[in-house]
Design brief:
Elements: E1 11-14, H1 22-26, E2 31-35, H2 42-52, E3 57-59, H3 68-80, E4 87-92, H4 94-106, H5 110-119, E5 130-134, E6 146-151, E7 156-161, E8 169-172, H6 182-200, H7 207-229, H8 234-254, H9 258-270, H10 274-277, H11 282-289, H12 294-304, H13 310-320, H14 327-330, H15 334-346
Parallel strand pairs: 1-8, 2-3, 2-4, 4-5, 5-8
Antiparallel strand pairs: 6-7
Helix pairs in contact: 4-5, 6-7, 6-8, 7-8, 7-12, 9-15, 11-13
The chain binds zinc ion.
InterPro entries: ADH_Fe/GldA, ADH_Fe_C, ADH_Fe_CS, ADH_Fe_PsrA-like, Alcohol_dehydrogenase_Fe, PhpC
Keywords: NAD, Oxidoreductase
Organism: Paenochrobactrum glaciei
């Protein structure tokens, strides 16, 4: 076995009702609460306040796929009100947690993080600590040290990636996900499945990440069909949260791979939810990966049974959930699809992928 290394410093609390213990994690520090404007968030905001006292401020204007323009607005408000938190509490999905990382890296100052993203100029100060309470089961941002930020004016995706952006602590309370509609449950669940699989067909995979990924995929494959039938299935919500956590622990050490690089232009130009954009082509990406590495093949077989039939099994699973199957269904023409896939292979995440383009079934 070749040498390997695994690291994840996040303090994890998991379980129904765990959000009520957030006060013991905040420990009387002055905190900024970053969240979504959606009504279902309100009771959880109240829970945080009840457990930890009032925040310095609530930033509740975080939009999906956080953009530089939105973050500049938020930082302007913090600056104007002279708000200087000791810790940032992120209550929301991946967009909220990614936005919290941007605010943590710059202590609420926009320009230094902007300069870092645009020109790589160093940020010298240590990031503010983050306590994350994910409200969806899927994005995994609570377990990674990076954030996806969109520069909509320049039509590109930026990656904020710093070793001190791991959350100090996270609370995964599956009860919070109970109120999610099917569309969000599906998109975030398929994002988690993508994280698990992308960490397997990955040059950075190791025995620990593979174990996390196999456990994650098995849980997600069981939980999503149950939630499709009954969104209030508490056991399935818990299983889905567990799957997303294991997927996060897997890809926090490998990063993602080809399917994610395929997804970015699709999210940008077709406004497709991230979890759908990175999962619809998983069977084709899997077909390209099979036969390249014995470790990868074994992991895929451990999840899907028969290795050769695994791409078909996965396609049938995605179909049963009503997820799109072909690029045409999203509105992507044949030529454009080839261009997207070709570019994805050469992109940063694409280079994590173990397969080669000559095997990709267009
Ligand atoms: Zn993802």
């Amino acid at each position: 076995m070749s040498a390997w290394h695994y690291f994840n410093p996040v303090n994890i609390s998991f379980g129904a009702g765990e959000i009520s213990k957030i006060g013991t994690l905040i420990k009387n520090r002055r905190y900024l609460l970053v969240t979504h404007p959606d009504a279902p968030m309100l009771p959880w905001i109240e829970q945080v306040k009840a457990a930890a006292g009032a925040p310095l401020a609530v930033i509740n204007e975080i939009e999906p796929n956080p953009s530089l323009a939105m973050l500049e607005r938020v930082c302007g408000k913090l600056d104007q009100a002279n708000i200087v938190p000791e810790v940032i509490v992120a209550l929301g999905g991946g967009s909220v947690i990614d936005s919290a990382k941007f605010l943590a890296a710059g202590h609420g100052q926009y320009q230094i993080v902007y300069d870092y993203l645009q020109s790589g100029s160093e940020i010298t100060q240590t990031s503010l600590p983050i306590i994350a309470v994910p409200t969806t089961s899927g994005t995994g941002s609570d377990l990674t040290k990076w954030a996806t930020i969109w520069d909509l004016e320049a039509d590109r995706k930026l990656s904020l990636n710093r070793p001190d952006l791991y959350a100090e602590a996270i609370i995964i309370d599956p009860v919070i996900t109970q109120s999610l509609p099917w569309s969000v449950t599906l998109a975030s669940g398929l994002d988690a499945l993508s994280h698990a699989l992308e960490s397997i067909w990955n040059i950075n995979a190791n025995p620990v990440t593979r174990n996390f990924a196999i456990a994650a995929a098995r849980d997600i494959l069981k939980a999503l069909p149950r939630l499709q039938l009954d969104l209030n299935d508490t056991e399935a919500r818990s299983q889905m949260a567990m799957g997303a956590t294991n997927a996060g622990l897997a890809f926090s050490n490998t990063q993602t791979a080809l399917a994610h690089n395929i997804s970015y232009p699709i999210t940008l130009h077709y406004k497709l939810a991230h979890g759908i954009a990175c999962s619809f082509c998983l069977p084709e990406v899997m077909r390209t990966a099979i036969g390249v590495s014995a470790d990868c093949d074994q992991a895929i077989a451990a999840i899907f049974g028969d290795l050769q039939k695994a791409p078909q099994t996965l396609r049938a699973f995605l179909n049963s959930l009503g997820a799109p199957a072909r690029p045409e269904e999203i509105g992507i023409g044949k030529r454009e699809w080839q261009n997207i896939v070709q570019a994805a292979f050469t992109g940063q995440r694409g280079q994590n992928f173990i397969g080669t383009i000559d095997k990709f079934p267009f």
